[in-house]
Amino acid sequence: MKRILVIDDEQDIVFTLSEICKFAGYEVDTANNGQEGFEIFKSKKHDLIIVDFHMPGWDGLTTVKKIRSIDEAVAVLVLTVDERQEVADRFMAIGATDFAIKPIKAPDLIARVKVNLTISKMQRDVVRAKEMVFVEKGISSATLTLIENFMKQKPEEMTIEDISLGVNLAYQTVHRYVQHMLENERIEVIPIYGQLGRPKNKYRLL
Question: Which contacts (CB < 8 Å, 24+ apart) does range 149-153 have?
Answer without folding.
Answer: 151/187, 151/203, 151/204, 151/205, 152/205
